[in-house]
Amino acid sequence: MAVGTVLVTGGTGYIGSFTALVLLQNDYNVVIVDNLYNSSKVAVDRIELICGRRPAFYEVDVTDEAGLDKVFAENPEIDSVIHFAALKAVGESGEIPLEYYRVNVGGSIALLRSMARHNVSNIVFSSSATVYGDATRFPNMIPIPEHCPVGPTNTYGRTKTMIETVITDHIEAQRNNNKKAGKPYEQWNGALLRYFNPCGSHPSGVMGEDPQGVPFNLLPLLGQVATGQREKLLVYGDDYPSRDGTAIRDYIHVLDLADGHIAALKYLREHKPGVRAWNLGSGRGSTVFEMIKAFSHVVGRDLKYEVVERRQGDVLDLTANPALANKELGWETKLTLEDACADLWRWVDNNPKGYRQDPPAALLEAVKANKA
C-alpha cells in the first residue's frame, strides 16, 4: 500500500531522478514531469531497473500551466509535490537572466497555481545554498545556519530566493484565507531545502548525472577529464583566503540528498509547520584542490587542471550548518566524500556517454542479481 503519491518536477534530472528512486523505495507512488531540456528519459528506465517500480512520466514543461493541470487531473491521488524543475547554471544565469526568471520563477508560479486549483497543498522546494551569497560578510556565519541573512550574488541565486518568497507568501495566504473562512488550513505546507554541492552516483554504476551540454559542477567536469572527454579542469581562482587558495564547498552525496527530501516531506505531512527552511549539507568544507586530489586518488592518476580567473558571483565558503535538519528531520549524511568519488568514477568509467549508451553487461547482471 503506497504511503502517498508525489509529483516530481524535473524528475529525470540528476537530483530529481535520485529522489524519485528513493521515493519509490520508500513506498510512495511517483509521477514525473520533465521537458527533457537537460536530462534523458532513460533515467526512468534506470529507476525501474534498480528498484523494480516505474514512475509515471509526462513530458511537460513546468511553465505550461495547462499541461500541469492535465497531469493533476489525470492523477487526482497526487497529494504532494517535490519541485526541482529549473535552469541551474550560475554562469549562464548572468548571460540570459530573463530566461532564468521566466523558467525558474515563472515555472514555480505556474506550478503553484495549478497545485492550488487541484488542492495539492504540500510542496518541497529544491532551493540552494546560493541564496546566502557570501556568508563571510557576517561574523560567525560559517558554517552557514538557516538564520544567516540571504543575499545571493548571482542571477541563479536570486531566482531561488524569489521562489522561496513566492512559496512562503502563497502558503501563508492559503492558510490565512482558509482560517478566516473557517476551513481547514494546516494542510498547506512548504519546505525550502537549501542544499550545498550534490555529487556522486548510484553505487550500482547504472545511474548518475548525465548533463546534456557542458557540466557546471566540479565532479562531473573531473569525470570528463578522467575519461578523456576533456583535456583539463579549469580552477576558477587560487587567491581565496582559504587553506590552499581555492574556494570551499560542502559536498553531499546525491543519495543522502534524496533522503533529505523524503525526510522533509514526512515532516510536512506529520507536523504541518507552514513554511520551514532547512540546510542539507554535510557540515564539512572541502577546497577545489582537495576535491581534485580525492577524485584523482580514486581514478589512480593525477588529473590535469589549470588555474584561471575567478568567476563573477563565486564566493569563498559555502559550508552548511546542518544542525537544524539533523534535529528536526532526524536526517544526516551517511555517505562520505570518498563514497561520492568512488561512485562517480564507477558511473563515468563504465558509462562515458551517460544515458546515450547501454551499461556494461556485468553491471546490469549485478543489479539484477541484487534485486533477486
TrEMBL record:
Keywords: Carbohydrate metabolism, Galactose metabolism, Isomerase, NAD. One of its GO terms (molecular function) is UDP-glucose 4-epimerase activity. GO terms for biological process: galactose metabolic process. It catalyses: UDP-alpha-D-glucose = UDP-alpha-D-galactose. Its cofactor is NAD(+). Its EC number is 5.1.3.2. Transmembrane segments: none annotated. It is an enzyme of class 5 (isomerase). InterPro entries: Epimerase_deHydtase, NAD(P)-bd_dom_sf, UDP_G4E. Pfam families: Epimerase. Homodimer. In the C-terminal section; belongs to the aldose epimerase family. Mutarotase converts alpha-aldose to the beta-anomer. It is active on D-glucose, L-arabinose, D-xylose, D-galactose, maltose and lactose. This is UDP-glucose 4-epimerase. It comes from Lasiosphaeris hirsuta.
